[in-house]
Specification:
Layout: H1 18-37, H2 47-58, H3 86-102, H4 107-124, H5 131-145, H6 159-173, H7 178-187
Helix pairs in contact: 1-2, 1-5, 3-4, 4-5, 4-7, 6-7
Length: 192
């Protein structure tokens, strides 16, 4: 999965410097992180909740925030489902996520739920941009609501960890979640 940022004239703030765009996006992600921390439990996952998380992260910059994409991008070597399939895929995903989330009883159940949620959202790739960050926010929401710290799948400045993460996503694309579960399992820490 690669990096993608709209042309500078496509943002509300008319920022032309890529570094400043990245900083504004990071501020939005922090805002979305606070939003998910403020949600009351138990969580009921819905399309509307996911769109609101995305809108909270990116709505101060982009008009596409919180809306399904209308074109099919190429993400590295991956071609996501066409836009007309997104609504049905997302509703099914939310139903499955709620079932899995509501039936977690052990740490391993939580790992399964986190891996499923993270990969499925990245796989569907419903938004124009910010899908990976939205997947990590969703993963954090699940972890927090189950009493765990956020799951740090990789750090941008740590190349090897990012490579392992991307390889785990590629394996998950082939229905093998084991590597992604290993990464998540290594990060599963109870809140203090």
């Amino acid at each position: 999965m690669g990096e993608y940022t709209d042309a500078p004239d496509d943002n509300f703030l008319n920022i032309t410097d890529k570094q400043l765009i990245n900083e504004e996006e990071a501020i939005g992600v922090i805002r979305a992180e606070q939003f998910i921390l403020d949600l009351e439990t138990p969580i009921h996952f819905s399309v509307q909740l996911l769109q609101e998380i995305h809108r909270t992260a990116f709505g101060h910059l982009y008009d596409w925030a919180g809306k399904w994409r209308t074109s099919t991008p190429t993400v590295g070597n991956y071609l996501p489902p066409p836009p007309n399939q997104i609504p049905n895929l997302m509703y099914y995903f939310m139903d499955q996520l709620n079932y899995q989330y509501n039936n977690t009883k052990t740490d391993e159940d939580v790992v399964e739920c986190l891996a499923y949620a993270h990969h499925r959202l990245v796989f569907i790739h419903p938004f124009t941009n910010g899908n990976g960050r939205s997947s990590r926010l969703l993963t954090d929401l699940i972890a927090f609501s189950k009493g765990y710290q956020n799951i740090e799948l990789y750090q941008r400045n740590k190349g090897e960890a990012r490579s392992l993460y991307l390889e785990a996503i590629r394996k998950a694309d082939k229905h093998d979640l084991s590597a992604l579960k290993d990464i998540i399992r290594s990060q599963l820490i109870l809140l203090q």
